[in-house]
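Help!! Second protein's tokens look totally different from the first
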Amino acid sequence: MIKRLIVVLMVLGITGCDGGPSNKIVWEKDGAEMVWIPELFIPTKFKKERVYDRIGNPITKSVKVSEPVKIDAFYMDCTEVTVGQFKKFLRATAHRYNTGYWEQVYRYSPTDEHPMIYVSWHDAISYCNWAGKRLPTEVEWDRAARGGLVDKEYPWGDDLRMSRDYANYDGTGNKDKWDDQTAPVGRFAPNGYGLYDIIGNVWEWCADSYDDDQDNRVLRGGSWDNLSFGLRITDRSFHLPNDADNYFGFRCVAELSEF
């Protein structure tokens, strides 16, 4: 199976020098650059607990705190879907986007190079279906956002002072051009996998429901409207799938099986 996939990738011209998948490709349908996120296996985690046997002697017991997790490799858009890409989707389909949003879109994302905002979860799903991609699961989003780092608070590490180099967020004291709106995509430093604006700029829709709440969908990553304490990788939000606002956006992923 793996050999067959590599042959397909070679035919498509998206393999690296070592015969494996290329680190970066361009998705033909929407022109998005995508980067390769390698697979990850997270083993079962245990913690030590001090307990007592039946006659009161202290003993140490290993307690399972998480099940093993395997995240298959995938490609992810380098940037959030832009206004220009979303317009291309609308021109190519009969998708019924709420035209009443456009005035506010242009207020906070004024050019085709800015991230598309005022998109509902359903809008994002329709775009992904047209492009032949999908929304990331929350686990995939978290994996990609870390950029290969382990147990760090932010995609760049633990030093919050570096946030201005990586993210568009509120509270920079007008020290950048975009204190009150989104920034054009790709204007800040990428994380270790080459993903831009994975934190800040716009909250990004994920495919999942929010925990056991089947009504709401997950958003991750914070936005231009968040202060710096909202830039942690683990921060989460949720909204109804029909909701849209000036800080909601998305990016897509694709699996090897989709080639």
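Here's the second one for comparison:
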Amino acid sequence: MDEQQVVRLVRAAAAAFGVDPARLERLGGATGQVLAVDDVVLRVGYPGVLDHEQVASKAAGHVVPVPATLDRYDDPAGDGAVVLLRRAAGTDAGALEGMSPERARRRGVACGRVQVALGQVPAPAGFPTVRDAGPAAERMLLHLDLHPLNILLDDDDQVTAVVDWTNAAAGPATFDLARTASVLTLDPHLVPLLGHPVWDAFLGGWTEAAGLDALPPEATAWACRYMLEDLGGRYPEAGLAHVRAALDDAVTQGAGETPVR
């Protein structure tokens, strides 16, 4: 969807929702187009993608807070759609500037507990199973992008919403845990934070609460492959060497495959 399509779609949806398009501000995020004003958020996307997100969010909403869906606008030509969501209170979990290590750890624990709760949610019927899960693998709801920017916390460090369900799929709960562990420790954007006391406290809280340091090696190997595929077009080969090394370590520990460099 190009920028002109997005602008046209947002204007039409804003009119349908009774929202002033001139006051909308873009929010950050790598997937989808997200805009907000006052206490509402407009999420722009293709109808099928938004359908998928809404099904995943509804399933997760039985155990964790998710943004309430207020309305939806579908382009008459079928070129796109916009979902109107209630804007969740709070800031993203990674907004740690000025915080003490103790508070950062509390925020990490809150994120880890939410992830454990999500690991108990069965995947909705018809959800695609992640690759390499195996025919007998459990089918739990996987977020697959559960990082600090997609969890919102209030001033008391309580989770107010889990957002961005674009990548949701079905598979073993350990795969989702391993995916998060790989993001927090291997993503090139976050690696420079390792060793900083506040970030380490946040990471330690999440790791302890969710058991990110006790994952089966096959889950870790799967998450490393997922990251290599996801980031392969954004970083030079040398920039992902540490991810390939982590994959080799996981394979050596028991994934049952020949190490790949």
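Reply: Different proteins will give different token patterns, so don't panic. The helical segments are 3-17, 47-60, 101-118, 173-186, 197-210, 217-231, 241-255.
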